[in-house]
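step 3/5: co-fold with inosinic acid
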Amino acid sequence: MTDDILTMVIATHNTGKLAEIRNLLKDYPVYLKSLLDFGPIPPVEEDGATFDDNAYKKAAFTARVLGVPALADDSGLVVEALGGEPGIHSARYGGDGLTDIERYTLLLRNMKGQKNRKAAFCCVISIAVPTGPALTYEARCEGRIAESASGENGFGYDPVFFYPPANQTFAEMSISEKSLVSHRGKALKEMQKEFDNVIRWIRQQMPVQEKFKCEGAISC
Ligand code: IMP
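step 4/5: write tokens
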């Protein structure tokens, strides 16, 4: 690794997210690590009031603990007729220990008979340096809650998220079709478009490491 290449850690254990991010940043001079490359670090409590709060918490905590710039994302499904739920609670909707199928089945039950089926997936990406400052990117993907689940691809609420321009649920679309229009895909694209500036910003924020040369008989 040369001094010219910046190291950044992606604050996730999710190999799918990691592959997506690595693919978008493959042409940039940045060495991407993930939490899988480090020993265990304490979990971050996602108790913020917004996606933004939680993405920043994850990125800032990881950057501070590991001493390198960190990128984190927080995402979820916002359903208009449910007052924005599950929202930031998407991963835990209905309680801990439910499967994805049990969660979206609960969502369908709570939407039964509901005429207003408008929903959006939201994603916030935060890039933080160990001293605290961060950059933020966010995007939404508008759709509707289907009457029933359909499709086998994807994860989470994909089988019940109907995307009208494709006339399909996210789970009926391929991963690459979904990435072109999804909340996460769009937020990552925004970040990718100005990644040269992101690298410049990170370099300005990172403390300069002083180097000492050891000479003569002194052992270092
Ligand atoms: P997190 O951002 O990894 O905390 O994910 C929040 C939760 O939102 C996930 O566990 C999923 O239930 C849901 N979610 C986020 N993005 C998607 C998506 O692209 N498809 C389906 N569900 C999603």
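step 5/5: annotate
The helical segments are 15-24, 51-66, 100-110, 175-181, 183-193, 195-205.
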